Amino acid sequence: MRLLRAAALLIAGLSATAPWIATPVPWIVRHEGGWSFPIFGVGDAVDVSLFIIAGAAAAWTLRSRGRIAVVLLVGVCLLFRAVGTTMDPPPVAAEIVVRAPIPYDGVTRDLSATRLPVGISTRHLLGTDATGRDVAARLLRGVRNSLAVAILVTIVATGVGIVVGLLLAAGPPVLRLPTDLLATTVVAIPAILVLLAVRTVAGGGIVPFVAVLATLRIPAIARVTHASARDLLAAPFVRAAFGLGLPAVHVYARTIVPHASGAAYALAGFGIVGAILAESALGFLGLGWSSTTPSLGALLEETRDLPSSGGLVAFLLGVVLLGIGSVAADVTRRSARAGETRP
Is the pTM of this model over 0.85? Predict the structure, then answer.
């Protein structure tokens, strides 16, 4: 399982750096005025955020020296990024000293190199699709886009679900029954059908997808948080805190929230897996991102008639899902142990 987690984290880390690994922009160029590093100006806020998240995940799984090395590497990259974005673009007549490992963006089409199998071309190591787009570049960027959506859905659903669960625990009991019935109804609705309906009414785009998927996941997290908070409110040490006259805000902030949120955090990892599966299913049906934006589902559909590339994409998708699921299971076990040993 450790090897599986390492492979999943490696794929996630490479995908987080996809804008700098798979890009036609050169890393280093030389011209009359000196040297330039145009690669430092590539990427947006989402790219930088995913890079930081991937570094934090890698540091969390390593020992102290490894964590220090990862933190230093991320810090140096961010420092160069801050300096590089202020650099002027290099002149047109410049010598490319170092290219990106994959000098393609996965979007540009090359009709002279279509349906290349894996390993037959040194320019396209993982081959190309039916329109000549590089599969390796699309794979890295597809994992990046799918992980970005899954992480965003999980953050929104977890944050809102924890707040709703705590409010229900602190609110009057008359609200619990209708809220529980509503949560049960929402959980029973198939996510794919809701997403298809919203996609038909509201059109494409990532905002409806994130909103619907987060809304469907909020009830489960709220119910788990609500149950944990109610158990804690009946615990002797919480009653003792209220009996000593401590303010309710203090008790909730220092005791209820940290303990009751543990189960919700444990579900977050499985929420990422479910979001990736939902995005892949919609992308495979052509209802996810736009046709020019790489994603895991779109890659599965594009490479299904390419035996070598299609099998590799499906295999890497399985590694990512199993690796993230393994990490989520580990987090769940740690949360359970912490709950057993809490005061």
Answer: no
